[in-house]
């Protein structure tokens, strides 16, 4: 594309937390939550990098080119044909790291959107989704982080020899008219450890059960059939194998459902547990009490009520820090 960057201009991008899998939709389904990271970014006319971080997660992220928001911004600049330039990146990090709430996808999405906005948006959302999936490895978190709402996504099958790089296909639905109650244990669970717990093969009957429930979950959300969520969020592909890494998982799921949750599941790779509840009535408070008991029994943590987010990541102009760019 050969764009000429404008130096010294700041933008801020906001990206939501996400919950992936939603029970049976392993590496395919995701939901955006109204709890957001913010990344401010500017280009400078000489090579180099400055990364600053604030917020509860500030001490847990690298301040070099390995930072996920920086990696994402660099991918956008390269795809747009911009020569290597300097970056200033200021992060405000509120999402808990390693808890299954999409903190890495939020950083990636915010970095992609911020860099794209700095260049006046030469890349499409499909382009950003493909770049984000390359960084994340799968689209289940990054799709709702970029698009918002309830997303089903997959990496497209390879085409003929010489075809363009792999594509990511994603379909967004409006989020169901529900709220989320999330139990967030104090102890993180690194995603790579959660993946190591998964078997190389699963019984055919378990695969069929998950296909049925994934289809039911997508159709139920599309049709507004919240009555199917209890069954549609059941899983036999990953949660049983990860239960040993998440103390109290079965009790949390059962307690949430018994207290009135419409569906409950391990959020992403865990260890957080997310319950979908009606916005009004006694269920949100009852489910929160049940999940608090579960996280206390598992060693401590917090419980939050979150709205589902219709909007994915977005960028807007921002003031520079004191002293200018």
Descriptive account of the structure:
It is a single chain. With 325 residues, the chain is of the alpha+beta class. It has 2 domains: 10-158 and 166-173, Ribosomal Protein S5, domain 2 (2-Layer Sandwich); 178-307, 2-Layer Sandwich (Alpha-Beta Plaits). Helix content is 32%, strand content 25%. It has 10 helices and 11 strands. The protein has helices at residues 68-79, 103-118, 125-136, 142-147, 191-196, 204-223, 229-232, 239-242, 249-258, 283-297; strands spanning 10-20, 29-44, 49-54, 86-92, 150-155, 168-173, 178-185, 263-266, 273-278, 301-307, 314-318. The strands form 2 sheets. Strands 1, 2, 3, 4, 5, 6 and 11 form a 7-stranded mixed β-sheet that branches. A 4-stranded antiparallel β-sheet has the order 8-9-7-10. The longest helix has 20 residues, at 204-223. The relative contact order is 0.19.
Please trace the helix and strand order, writing H or E for each element.
EEEHEHHHEEEHHHHHEEHEE
The radius of gyration computed from the alpha-carbon positions, rounded to a whole number of angstroms, is 20 Å
Give the helix proportion (percent range).
25-40%
- The span between the termini is 25 Å
Helices, by number, come to: 10
Share of residues in strands: 25-35%
Poorly predicted spans: 160-164
CATH topology of the largest domain: Ribosomal Protein S5, domain 2
What would you call the shape?
globular
Count of discrete domains: 2
Mean pLDDT: 93
* Largest β-sheet summary: 7 strands, mixed
The CATH class of the largest domain: Alpha Beta
- What CATH architecture of the largest domain would you give? 2-Layer Sandwich
